[in-house]
Design a protein that fits this description.
This protein has helices at residues 10-15, 21-26, 32-42, 65-73, 93-108, 125-133, 146-149, 190-193; strands at 4-9, 58-62, 79-81, 87-89, 112-114, 137-143, 157-160. With 196 residues, the protein is α/β, with parallel strands linked by helices. The chain is globular and about 60 Å long.
C-alpha cells in the first residue's frame, strides 16, 4: 500500500494525442524529460492566466513527497554496503547535482499542483486527489493505496512507475514509505525483510 506510483488520466492522454506512458516504458523512453514535457503540455491556467486549484488543469497533482520519488527514481542511492557488508553513503555530488535541479523544475512547474507549493489553495492530500479525480490533472503522484479510494472515480486511470532520469539508466525504480511487510511474523523478524 505504501509503494509510491504515478496514476495517469487515460482520457487526457488520448485527447492530447500523446504516446502512452505504457508504450514509453516498453520503448525505454519514459524519462524525466518526457514526464516534464507531458506535464507542461497538459497544464492549462484558468481564464485569467492563473493556476487556480479550483478551475485550472494541471499536468501533475501531488504532495511534496513526489520530490523524493523523483530522486529515487533517478537511481540515486543514498546508502549501500561494501564487499564487507559495511554500510556507506553512496550518493555522489555529481549525480545529485544533475537530479535535484531537474526534480525541482518538475515539482515547481506552474503546471504542477503540489501540497507544499500551492499550500494557500490546497490543504490536504484529499484536495490533490480530487483535482485528479475530477479530470483536471494528467498525472497524480501518490501511494498505491489511493487506488482503492478512487474506485468510484469517473476518471479512468492507469498506474505506472516513476520515469527514469534518462534512457541510459538501466532500470525503472520506485520507492516505498517505511513499512513492515504483512507477512513478517513479528517485529523482531522485520529486519530480515527490510534491508539496505
Amino acid at each position: 500500500d505504501a509503494i509510491w506510483v504515478l496514476y495517469y488520466n487515460l482520457q487526457m492522454v488520448e485527447d492530447k494525442g500523446m504516446e502512452t506512458p505504457y508504450d514509453r516504458i516498453d520503448n525505454n523512453t519514459w524519462t524525466y524529460q518526457v514526464f516534464y514535457e507531458m506535464i507542461t503540455a497538459s497544464g492549462k491556467p484558468d481564464g485569467s492566466g492563473v493556476y487556480d486549484t479550483k478551475t485550472a488543469t494541471y499536468g501533475f497533482a501531488t504532495t511534496a513527497d513526489s520530490g523524493q520519488g523523483l530522486i529515487y527514481a533517478a537511481g540515486v542511492k543514498f546508502a549501500d554496503k561494501d564487499d564487507d557488508d559495511v554500510p556507506y553513503l553512496a550518493a555522489t555530488v555529481e549525480k545529485l547535482s544533475d537530479v535535484i535541479p531537474f526534480a525541482a523544475d518538475i515539482m515547481n512547474n506552474d503546471a504542477c499542483c503540489n501540497l507544499t507549493k500551492d499550500a494557500s489553495q490546497v490543504t490536504t492530500a484529499d484536495d490533490i486527489r480530487t483535482i485528479f479525480e475530477n479530470g483536471r490533472a494528467l498525472f497524480y503522484g501518490e501511494v498505491l493505496q489511493c487506488a482503492a479510494r478512487m474506485r468510484g472515480s469517473a476518471t479512468e486511470f492507469g498506474l505506472i512507475t516513476w520515469p527514469k532520469f534518462d534512457e541510459s539508466q538501466e532500470n525503472y525504480i520506485t520507492y516505498g514509505s517505511a513499512f513492515v511487510p504483512a507477512y513478517a511474523a513479528t517485529l523482531v523478524h522485520s529486519g530480515k525483510y527490510v534491508r539496505i
